[in-house]
Amino acid sequence: MDFTLSIQQKQVRRMARQFAKTELADIAKEIDEEGRFPWEVVEKMGPLNFFGMQAPRKYGGAELDTISYCLVIEEISRVCAAMGLTVAVHNSVVVYPLSRFGSDEQKAKFLPSLASGEKIGAFCLTEPNAGSDAMAIESTAISEGDSYIVNANKIFVTNGGVADTLIIFASVNPRDVKKGFSALLVERGTPGFEIGLLENNCGVRANPVSSIVLTDCRIPKTNLLGREGEGFKIAMAALDTGRIGIAAQAVGIGQAALDASLKYAKERIQFRLPIARQQAIQMMLADMGTMVEAARLLTLQAAHIRDQQGDLSGPSAMAKLFAARTASKVASMGVQIHGGYGYSKDYPIERYFRDARVTEIYEGTNEIQQIVIARELLKRGED
Ligand code: CAA
Q1: Three-state SS for 260?
Q2: 136 pocket-lining for ligand 1 (C-beta < 6 Å)
Q3: pLDDT tens-digit profile of 176-196?
Q4: Would you say the CB of residue 177 lies under 6 angstroms from ligand 1?
Q5: Ligand 1 within 6 A of 233 CB?
Q6: Best CA proximity match to 74, nearest among 373, 376, 326
Q7: Which of 367, 354, 363, 359 is nearest to 35 (CA)?
Q8: Which domains can be identified in the chain, with CATH numbers?
Q9: Helix H or strand E segment including 178
Q10: Is the pLDDT of residue 97 over 70?
Q11: Helix (H, G, I), strand (E, B), or coil: what is residue 359?
């Protein structure tokens, strides 16, 4: 497969790289330490269409291909994984399912403010008793006239603390959750809507991950995304795309860990030589570089398949599984190369190490990706 980037894709990558360098590099450490969401950066990202990368032009989006989208997420995450996550989740599991499954009225109402970055999106699937087993949700949406009365307790919601437009999954049929599994568009500020406690997470700390609680929240039936009972398929289709974005985020973190380790290895003198001259260090660097490159290729392949409208579940799960493991492994090797300094907050490698770990968990753990991959392989049979 030929992955020569087009002129336009190279321009998009250059723009994202430049933006991350000028707007994020100086504050990435500080916003991680403070757990602060950088609104000042979001305001600058809006006009550049970071929040509408794949939304239709008609609604203010840029209609970028998925490869360009991945290049942007990689470049942002290479400097600040938390903002990479904000942009990836907003685009892939909110803007995308809304663009694909939304009615014309819903698109006209919700997409322009999401695409411009005026409003931030969030995807609310996980609950205390429904993590990997997404079908086990207990949230309900009971029909009452032209509304649903929604009661939901959602946890670990990426962007939760700042989101205005949220996709909430709840069942319209509590006796048969699967049959009633539905997706609803919910706006912050609706009576009964509450942002719960922010998580004090180990990594990607500038992203305001929170719980979201809906108590007897009246949501108009016009906010139903797709049809009643279609919610699980919408969630899974969104995650098929979302996982490519997380893979790109993981590639960015892995690349950052490699960059920092190369720099350190050339500067650090031990035994009267830069440690980069020691074969033990060179071998680690070689493995790190190879893994990052392989993760990037799998990610771009999944992106390419999506652009060709191919079957995405297997390729996106493979990309996420491999890229997430790579980010964790490469960041851990980077800490090892840095020795005692790698464990100190004075060097960025410890942040990459913390940020990498969650890519193996959110949008489906490694083990969930393995289930998806194995099912696809078995389905494919022997041809
Ligand atoms: N696309 C469309 N439909 C799909 C699908 C897909 N990728 N995957 C499954 N479906 C359909 C199936 O065809 C099936 O349809 P029928 O009933 O008509 O046959 C239906 O959905 C149920 O499928 P399964 O029987 O495979 O369902 P399951 O209960 O065995 O679960 C699973 C499958 C893959 C394990 C799924 O539960 C899963 O992905 N779990 C992980 C959830 C996850 O990733 N959570 C992360 C949440 S978001 C987050 O992390 C944070 C954030 O803020 C973004």
Answers
A1: helix
A2: no
A3: 999 999 999 999 999 999 999
A4: no
A5: yes
A6: 326
A7: 354
A8: 7-120 (1.10.540.10), 122-229 (2.40.110.10), 232-382 (1.20.140.10)
A9: helix 177-180
A10: yes
A11: helix
- SS3 assignment, position 329: helix
| CA 151 to ligand 1 centroid distance, Å | 22
Q: What is the pLDDT of residues 250-291, one digit of tens each?
A: 999 999 999 999 999 999 999 999 999 999 999 999 999 999
What is the distance between the alpha carbons of residues 345 and 217, in angstroms, rounded to a whole number? 43
Rounded-to-integer distance, Cα 301 and Cα 307, Å: 10
Q: Establish whether residue 232 lines the binding site of ligand 1, counting it when its CB lies within 6 angstroms of any ligand atom.
A: yes
Per-residue b or e along 204-237, where b marks 16 or more CB atoms closer than 10 Å to that residue's CB: bbbbbbbbbbbeebebeeebbbbebbbbbebbeb
User: How far does the centroid of ligand 1 lie from the alpha carbon of residue 239, in Å?
Assistant: 8
Top mutation candidate among 124, 127, 199, 232 for ligand 1, by most atoms within 8 Å of CB:
232
Q: What tokens were used for 260? A: 């920092």
Q: What is the rounded average pLDDT of the residues 125-132?
A: 98
Q: Is 363 part of the annotated catalytic residue set?
A: yes
Cα separations in angstroms, 166 against 31, 320, 350:
24, 24, 32
Q: Which helix (H) or strand (E) holds 365?
A: none
pTM: 0.97
Retrieve residue 358's tokens.
């969650």
- Between the CA of 135 and the centroid of ligand 1 the distance, in Å, is 8
Question: Which residue's C-alpha comes closest to atom 8 of ligand 1?
Answer: 236
Say if residue 382's pLDDT is above 90: no
